[in-house]
Every structure is written in structure tokens, then in C-alpha cells.
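As agreed, record copied across for absentees:
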Amino acid sequence: MTDTDTTALEAAAFRRLRDHLMVQRPDVQNIDLMILAGFCRNCLADWYRDAAQERGLSMTRDEAREAVYGMPFAEFKARHQAEATPEQLAAFEARTRSS
């Protein structure tokens, strides 16, 4: 497999993950992703922006978030993101303490 093939496969996997989180499971809360997996959509957006900057491309945090969320972050948040419950906050705090 060539480097080009590897890059294409990685890009396809990323797009599938992004689409899964945007289209099929927008109900999954970022805090739940953080508790279970240690990353969330915002992390993906940060990594996306980091990759752009490593290649000399200028990208704002808002532009990166829109690429991951498929819409402006504020719009996604208003449509899909609920306030974290006390239980979620406690689980997140416990996870961050154990990491």
C-alpha cells in the first residue's frame, strides 16, 4: 500500500466517523464521548485545525468546528446539545482524575 492509499483510507475513515456523529448520532453528547472515549467532536475539530496548521493552512477554531459539526457550532449546540447532568459531570470528573 502506498502513502497515498494510506492517506485516502484514513481520510475516508475520518469522514465516516464525522458523518456518523453528525448525521446518524447527533444525539450523542460530547460529555458522554469524553467520559467513554476521552475525546469529543471539539477534540476532532482541534485535531483537524492542528493538521491544517501543520500544512501551513490558516484555519480558525470556528472553521474547524464547522467542518466537524457540519454547521456552525452554535447551531449544532442549540439543536442537539443538552446541558450536562450532575451525573455526567461527576463521571467526567472521575475519569479525568483517573487519567
In short: The chain has a mean pLDDT of 95. Helices lie at 3-24, 30-37, 41-54, 61-69, 73-80, 86-98. The longest helix spans residues 3-24.
